[in-house]
TrEMBL record:
Identification of the protein by name: inorganic diphosphatase
Gene this protein is translated from: PPA1
Gene Ontology BP, a term: phosphate-containing compound metabolic process
Subunit comment: Homodimer.
Keyword Acetylation: yes
Keyword Transmembrane helix: no
Natural source organism: Ailuropoda melanoleuca (Giant panda)
UniProt family annotation: Belongs to the PPase family.
Assigned keywords, A-Z: Acetylation, Hydrolase, Magnesium, Metal-binding
Length: 289
């Protein structure tokens, strides 16, 4: 068990909905800054934002205090990804590696573009459908260099270390061998997923070829260095909330009481008895409106 837990505030698929993270003591923390990047030697933590097969575009709210997970909004409307034929929603558990940051002020030598101002993204390819807000331990296998509207947006490919088949996956070639077509589908999905919203296709560095595990870990480490500069105020975050409870050298560190006050000011937790539409119901409502 990771020792982390999550708490939902307000009803899912509403503008007010938030998922806050807690540590093993039940204290509120930031999934961006307080969850350690490493779970073990060569094992990384992953914050699950979007469970596989779902459509709601959930993400760590980088500009909100404590960085809860919330649904992305564009032009006042909640965002959902299209069911891009032949796929249903996201085709992996999707999320981010904590304590990383793709610096928009840093021009990446591999892509020629600056970072997208978010933690580095992860596509987890294991068999389990994870829960939103779950913290899992992953083994990194490779990486894809996507360029999204002129910004570098790395996509790490990883597998949950608790997956029954995790021992068989140690590098990107194992994915090619054991899941034929999955990496090609991943490129296709990322290339086209914004097209139904009227956006152009995304582009890729390295001719859309996946780089291996060692390359991926080097990229993750560089984004960790950028995060460190951000949270210690050596880099201007331009609106990013660096409020945290654990980073001793950070001027943004606060005590657990201050973190609790942030959450207590929000709508109460959604009771288990409350009825909310399913993700799919909301998706079809979105399509019709």
């Amino acid at each position: 068990m990771s020792g982390f837990s999550s708490e939902e505030r307000a009803a899912p698929f509403t503008l007010e909905y938030r998922v806050f993270l807690k540590n093993e003591k039940g204290q509120y923390i930031s999934p961006f800054h307080d969850v350690p990047i490493y779970a073990d030697k060569n094992v990384f933590h992953m914050v699950v934002e979007v469970p596989r097969w779902s459509n709601a575009k959930m993400e760590i709210a980088t500009k909100d205090p404590l960085n809860p997970i919330k649904q992305d909004v564009k032009k006042g409307k909640l965002r959902y990804v299209a069911n891009l034929f032949p796929y249903k929603g996201y085709i992996w558990n999707y999320g981010a590696i904590p304590q990383t940051w793709e610096d928009p002020g840093h021009n990446d030598k591999h892509t020629g573009c600056c970072g997208d101002n978010d933690p580095i993204d992860v596509c987890e390819i294991g068999s389990k459908v994870c829960a939103r807000g779950e913290i899992i331990r992953v083994k990194v296998l490779g990486i894809l260099a996507m360029i999204d509207e002129g910004e570098t947006d790395w996509k790490v490919i990883a597998i949950n270390v608790d997956d029954p088949d995790a021992a068989n996956y140690n590098d990107i070639n194992d994915v090619k061998r054991l899941k034929p077509g999955y990496l090609e589908a991943t490129v296709d999905w990322f290339r086209r997923y914004k097209v139904p919203d009227g956006k152009p296709e995304n582009q890729f560095a390295f001719n859309a070829e996946f780089k291996d595990k060692d390359f991926a870990i080097d990229i993750i480490k560089s984004t960790h260095d950028h995060w460190r500069a951000l949270v210690t105020k050596k880099t201007d975050g331009k609106g990013i909330s660096c409020m945290n409870t654990t980073v001793s050298e950070s001027p943004f560190k606060c005590d657990p009481g201050a973190a609790k006050a942030i959450v207590d000011a929000l709508p109460p937790p959604c009771e288990s008895a409350c009825t909310v539409p399913t993700d799919v119901d909301k998706w079809f409502h979105h399509q019709k409106n």
